[in-house]
Amino acid sequence: MRDMSGWTHFLVVTGALLQLGGLGLTVRQVQLVIGIRETVRQQLHELGRQLLGRKTRQSVTVNVTVPIGVEISADVEVRYAGESELEWLAREVRQNRNAVAELGRKFERKITELDNRTQRGLDSRLEMLDRETSEKASRNAVLMWWGVVLIGAGITMQTAGSLL
């Protein structure tokens, strides 16, 4: 058996240390991949809860002071002089139809506004989720690259040390 020279020891030990470093980066990469999946799962779960109208786990309490006012309403029947019962009923029906039509328009505007707000919130949430996932995937790719480089350098150094 030959005695290993100083360079041989250095190359073998340094190669082993580089491989351990690469293995450490690979383990970190796997942890990040698991973290990305967990984050995506949590985001999708939260999004589903919001779309179904369920309360989220996080709650915010806001104290609001509301001034109290009194509103008085009264029904007044107005009849024009010489107006028959039939003319009065026709006028009342027209007024009620107009009031119902106005309520329908207000309801439609509210539904449209709610739909637009919900869509903007959903788009914002999806954009944030996409940005977070992209950042984590980029960081994951860098860790994977350096892990491969370190493991490859370690194998090369150990092979060179073995050949010496």
Provide a descriptive summary of the structure in words.
The chain is mainly α and 164 residues long. It is built from two helices and no strands. The radius of gyration is 36 Å and the shape is rod-shaped. The two termini are 13 Å apart. The model has no long low-confidence stretch (mean pLDDT 79).
Question: TL;DR?
Answer:
Helices cover about 75% and strands about 0% of the residues. It has about 160 residues and is mostly helical.
Descriptors:
2 helices; 164 residues; mainly alpha; single chain
- Principal-axes shape call: rod-shaped
Helical segment count: 2
SSE string, helices as H and strands as E:
HH
Q: What share of the residues does DSSP label as strand, in percent?
A: under 5%
How many strand segments?
Answer: 0
Amino- and carboxy-terminal Cα gap: 13 Å
Flag low-confidence runs. Answer: none
Report on the biggest sheet.
Answer: none
Q: Percent helix among the residues?
A: over 70%
Q: Look at the structure and give the mean pLDDT.
A: 79
- Using only C-alpha atoms, the radius of gyration works out to 36 Å
Class of secondary structure makeup: mainly alpha
